[in-house]
Specification:
Blueprint: H1 2-10, H2 25-46, E1 58-63, H3 65-68, H4 85-96, E2 103-106, H5 114-119, H6 121-124, E3 132-136, H7 139-143, H8 148-165, E4 170-174, H9 187-203, E5 206-208, H10 211-218, H11 235-252
Parallel strand pairs: 1-2, 1-3, 3-4, 4-5
């Protein structure tokens, strides 16, 4: 009803449409444009800005295949952020707040462990000089048998290096997760989730808890609606991740 009132205010002739079987082409075009403009304005106004995204902010997403999202390795802006949660966040806020001139980067690499991340940290993280750094790593560490102690000390080391380069750096840590229908979460994943929470506390990072997010989502419908192979989200799952990431980051830096 509210949208209809707005349309009537912009296009008073709308009220006469009930008496017309086929409104004139010009009027139809005006109505379509009116609805499009109102829908766009309503969508934009419904998106709350993220205070951590200050003007000129450089936001970097790091991790494994979930972050990679099959991103392009060229400067082609059509694919450079991949097709996942990082893309959704960047597209949404880049479109609604163009005056902030936000720069988004994705350097996730499929198959990576924290040891791989350490090897390319200088080039793919420090050299980009992010103002906000989001990291999600751990599921491959579990699958490839990276020792928990090694996982923690290496993760701690690279975060310390990033913080040393930029003391004002905002950190976001995303916990690893899996979904095995009817089975408990593997102990190795649970242990790495605890390590990520510990490091988030130590480094003053926002913590995005994903296991409960997907557990709760799976209670509503089949697991493969959200995560198609126990590890990689579907496009619906990536939307859940993007929404939760934004919620946590918005609440952390008010």
């Amino acid at each position: 009803m509210h949208l209809l009132r707005l349309c009537l205010a912009v296009c008073p002739r709308l009220g006469h449409l009930r008496q017309q079987r086929r409104p004139a082409a010009g009027l139809r075009r005006r109505l379509l444009l009116t609805f499009a403009l109102l829908a766009s304005a309503t969508w934009a106004s419904a998106i709350e800005p993220i205070p951590a995204f200050s003007a000129g902010c450089r936001i970097l997403f790091q991790g494994d295949s979930i972050t990679d999202g099959n991103r392009g390795r060229s400067l082609d802006p059509n694919h450079i952020l991949g097709h996942g949660y990082a893309f959704i966040i960047a597209a949404r806020h880049g479109a609604v707040f163009p005056e902030r001139k936000l720069d988004f980067f994705n350097r996730g690499v499929s198959g990576n462990t924290v040891l791989n991340l350490e090897t390319r940290w200088a080039k793919d993280t420090l050299a980009l000089k992010p103002d906000l750094l989001s990291v999600m790593i751990g599921v491959n560490d579990n699958g490839k048998g990276v020792a928990l102690e090694t996982y923690e000390t290496t993760y701690d080391k690279i975060l310390t290096e990033a913080r040393a380069q930029n003391p004002k750096l905002k950190l976001v840590l995303m916990e690893p997760f899996v979904r095995h229908p009817g089975k408990p979460v593997p102990e190795g994943i649970v242990a790495r989730q605890a390590i990520v929470a510990k490091l988030a506390l130590k480094h003053g990072a926002a913590l995005v808890r994903l296991q409960k997010l997907f557990d709760d989502a799976a209670a509503k419908t089949a697991d493969d609606y959200w995560v198609w192979d126990s590890v990689h989200p579907t496009y619906r799952g990536h939307q859940l991740m993007a929404d939760e990431w934004e919620r946590v980051v918005r609440e952390t830096w008010k």
